[in-house]
Amino acid sequence: MLQRNNCINLRSLIFFSRYGSSFSKFFTSQAASSLQPVCEPATYSNRGDDEYADLNWDNLGYGLVPTDYMYIMKCSDKEKFSHGELNRFGNIEMSPASGVLNYAQGLFEGLKAYRKEDGRVLLFRPEQNAMRMMMGAERMCMLSPSVDQFVDAVKQTVLANKRWVPPPGKGSLYLRPLLMGSGAMLGLAPAPEYTFIIFASPVGTYFKEGLAPINLLVEDEFHRATLGGTGGVKAISNYAPVLKAQAQAKSKGFTDVLFVDSKTKNHLEEVASCNIFILKGKTISTPVTGVTVLPGITRKSIIDIARDYGYQVEERPIPVEELFEADEVFCTGTAVVVAPVGSITYQGKRVEYRTGDGSVSQKLYLTLTGIQMGLIEDKMGWTVEI
Fold first, then answer.
1. CA Rg, the chain, in Å?
2. What is the pLDDT of residue 163?
3. How far apart are alpha carbons 36 and 255 in whole angstroms?
4. How many CA atoms lie within 13 A of 346 on its CB side?
5. Is 24's pLDDT higher than 60?
6. Distances (CA, A) of 320 to 96, 275, 357
7. CA separation for the pair 370, 104 (Å, rounded)
8. Does 234 qualify as catalytic in the annotation?
9. pTM surpassing 0.85?
10. What is the pLDDT of residue 207?
């Protein structure tokens, strides 16, 4: 949102993780630059590992909680990203002619930091976010940080904001890496300068229902992505188009929208901001990623966990009709983690699914979050300690 003096406020969609009391039950049973930071670079002081920010940790919800620092790194189109620095969290100045504002040349990522009982902080598969951003940057004709640069910047951001990492079991510190064409231009072309930013916010649950099952409406008029488009990368331009369909669904009492493909209008693709899975017997199915479906990191992790539990996992086109035969349906994503679906409505017909204690989605959720928070052994080597 543009403000006076060409400032842009760093507000964005902040996604949230979900925690519940069912852990114990489960484990018992199983200028020269066009973009300048407003503040001068600053060094941060370590206030001590046991000190927390003054925040009601029991009441975290959907909303940006500004932390202390953000990370900024930039380069021209004739260079590579080299050196970044921490700045006080705040507004940034940007030319109104920047590539991201005029032509949506931008990408974002989302990942989380978790505090263990002993105070140590864990990241979950940050290199996967780095590689996905590199893939998206190639599609959007952008320069991007290397995997090492990305992961190092994430670590610096977490350490600088460590007092904002919630206590164990109270939430997580959500990290939002942004890559944007910040250089000024008028004609349609790749931007002459790129900026990489990471900011952070402590978060709780994504859906206001918390751990309760969500209810989806299948949308076959509006489409999230099309063949040949950018649905398979995390482009900023993928998200505003879902808002109208989402708003209409919420006005009817639904939690979110499940989109189908734009060609046949008969195959499942994604929910507005997460991947979808259906379970029938011992088989779990999920749409193929690529051109129109985002390769979610939580999605990828859940596939591995499910296979480790002995489920057959299929990545394939899924006709809408299979929703009426499924035993369970659930969504996955950095924000929602694993969200059980209570019902789906398609063309006026509603079908309900198994949720709650004993469900497969609950077992997968508890295993994944147990790894993320360091409560169970990470045999996959997914967590990174800071």
1. 21
2. 97
3. 39
4. 18
5. no
6. 43, 15, 27
7. 37
8. yes
9. yes
10. 77
The arrangement of secondary structure in 2-203, i.e. its CATH architecture, is: 2-Layer Sandwich (3.30)
Q: Whole-angstrom Cα distance, residue 196 to residue 86?
A: 12
Q: Where are the domains of the chain?
A: 2-203, 214-372
pLDDT digits (tens, 9 = 90+) for 192-202: 999 999 999 99
**Residue 209 near residue 158 (C-beta atoms within 8 A):** no
| Average pLDDT of the chain to the nearest whole number | 88
Residue type at 315 in one-letter notation: E
Planar angle of CA 208, 212, 216, nearest 5 degrees: 80
Q: Are the beta carbons of 238 and 108 closer than 8 angstroms?
A: no
Rounded CA separation 177/246 (Å): 24
Class of domain 214-372: alpha beta
Cα separation, 198 vs 153, in Å, equals 8
Task: Kindly indicate the confidence band of residue 212, based on its pLDDT and cuts at 50, 70 and 90.
Answer: confident
Alpha-carbon distances, residue 322 vs 37, 172, 266, 268, 284 (angstroms): 51, 35, 10, 10, 12
Given the residues 155, 234, 252, 282, select the one marked as catalytic.
Answer: 234
